[in-house]
Amino acid sequence: MSAHIKHQIIGPENDPQYVVVPYLEYLRIVGEAGDQALLPHAVVELHVVDGYSLLRAWRKYKKMTQRTVAEKAGITQAAYSQMERPESKPHAATLEKIAKAFGITVEQLTI
After folding, report:
1. pTM of the model
2. Can you give the residue range of the structural domain that contains 50?
3. Buried-most residue among 18, 38, 76, 91 (CB within 10 A)?
4. What pairing do the DSSP bridges indicate for beta strands 8-10 and 18-20?
5. Please, which residues have CB within 8 angstroms of residue 47's CB and are 6 or more apart in sequence?
6. Are residues 95 and 81 both part of a single domain?
7. DSSP 8-state class, residue 37
8. CA–CA distance from 10 to each of 2, 20, 21, 57, 106 (Å)?
9. Number of structural domains the chain divides into
């Protein structure tokens, strides 16, 4: 009889690509937010591989300009541009406005 494996790692040992987890654990990980806490693969790739901030990665994914995001969030394009820098730490209220402009949750901008 084989032992129960909680997680299954798929891919070479030095370059894993996926992890399969039991469904109940998946539900615990994503919590009440469900899919709203998840990031599309394209956003993750822009953030992790290309080094974009999550704000910039989401903007690129949504095919929006800085001006459009800024207008929808009620801030200036210059201010928004500064917030896209990886080292930027926008205020919670501003993140709420930007998340609304993208049509996503604040958690998706701060994961």
Report:
1. 0.69
2. 39-110
3. 38
4. antiparallel
5. 39, 53, 54, 57
6. yes
7. G
8. 18, 8, 11, 26, 30
9. 2
